[in-house]
Amino acid sequence: MSAEPLLADAPWLISGGTARVLSLLNANGEEARVVGGAVRNALLDLPQGDIDIATTALPEEVVRRARSAGIKSVPTGIEHGTITLVIDGAPYEVTTLREDTETFGRKAKVAFGRDWVRDAERRDFTMNGLSVDAQGVVYDYVGGLADAAARRVRFIGDPDRRIAEDYLRILRFFRIHAAFGAGDPDRDGYLACIRGRAGLSGLSAERVRMEMLKLLVAAGASAAALAMADGGLLQSLTGGVVYAGPLSGMIAIERELGLPASSTRRLAALAVAVTEDARRLAARLRLSNVEAKALDSMGHRWWRFATRDEATARRLLYRLGAERYQDRVLLAWARGGGDVTSARWRELAELPQRWTAPKFPLKAADFIARGMAEGPALGRVLTLAEDAWLAADFPLDEGALASIADQAAARASRDQKT
């Protein structure tokens, strides 16, 4: 066991809401520490996310102390000993030390305890098994300090047992490695994931979606996805062929253009070649409506961009809108397998920054003035006129618009007669 004052000067620990929660819980024979990802991130000099706190105090005592201090408490997982304290709008998840009495995935039976070693040993990976007290002393019962220094993601104890407790840990192994690891995945953990891959089929789509989308935006997403594909771990999740090359291309393109990582774009690059792929993925992962529509749009004839000039691209930008347009261009670029520094692809991708589509200037009144009656025919003539306006490259002068309106009205009249 290691216990060293490695974070004694950490501002997030010694002041603000974290310090207040620790002070509240470190009294009258109870002890509290920050645990898990916050400790890992601090040691790796990475930004802090959520701050989780473990305590020897029982949930009822946590609630009592919070109430006496005027701190809001929310029983977010009280059956598992978790209370969320809210300070200045920021949540602090406080969980009583636990020991597993039976382990079967998300429904493991736990008993509250006071043993910091046993609490650490029930966690997933060594670098997540670290804890730090209010003085900045880091406690390591599982070898997490050495693994964090080496950027090595390693299961605590027997990897097969850890995975059997919750098969989502297979995805977490690759996601944590993609975000915090270096080099190849830990071999023992990797082989255990392959041995346990059949257990992935029993996971809920919502849990798989959450881990996959987080994995895809991690720094090492490309290498992690390739390792998963090589181990036969991705195909069952996507329900189809996996395209590791386009994923790598998409990541490189985003970086080349200075774009933020997009989990949806990267998922499309990994597993969408046609719209059927998009719809299957949306069903398998229970994607949100926004995510599903974005994937479906990207999968729709993206390959046509390979031969599109800018005039044609402007028409597509008008139809799709800037966000959908750019996503589809980037998927075509990534799937094309070409140079990520290509000037032509960059010009197509950055068209929304250089050009804003005008609004279609013709209105229903323009056609009523030409003798068209209100009704379905009026809608059809507007569509005909808009198509002609796009084909003419968005003219705005009155003469061109009058000509387009006259021709559309004449064609609609002919269509009505036949």
Fold and architecture overview:
This protein has 418 residues and is of the alpha+beta class. The protein has three domains: 1-150, Beta Polymerase, domain 2, CATH 3.30.460; 239-357; 364-417, no CATH class. It has 23 helices and ten strands. It has helices at residues 11-14, 16-25, 37-43, 59-68, 116-121, 144-149, 159-165, 168-180, 187-195, 205-216, 221-230, 235-238, 244-257, 263-271, 275-285, 289-298, 310-320, 322-336, 343-349, 351-354, 364-368, 376-391, 398-417; strands spanning 2-4, 32-35, 51-55, 72-77, 82-87, 90-96, 98-102, 109-112, 131-132, 138-140. The protein has an eight-stranded mixed β-sheet with strand order 1-10-9-2-3-6-5-4. It is elongated, with a radius of gyration of 28 Å. The model has no long low-confidence stretch (mean pLDDT 92).
How much of the sequence lies in strands comes to 5-15%
Tally of contiguous helical segments: 23
The H-level CATH homologous superfamily of the largest domain, spelled out, is Beta Polymerase, domain 2
Categorize the overall geometry: elongated
What class, by secondary structure content?
Answer: alpha+beta
Stretches with pLDDT under 50, minimum 5 residues: none
Total beta strand runs: 10
User: What is the rounded Rg?
Assistant: 28 Å
Number of domains: 3
Q: Could you tell me the CATH topology label of the largest domain.
A: Beta Polymerase, domain 2
The helicity comes to 40-55%
Mean pLDDT value: 92
CATH class category of the largest domain: Alpha Beta
CATH architecture of the largest domain: 2-Layer Sandwich
- For the report, how would you describe the main beta sheet? 8 strands, mixed
| Order of strands, widest sheet | 1-10-9-2-3-6-5-4
Taking the alpha carbons of the first and last residues, their distance comes to: 89 Å
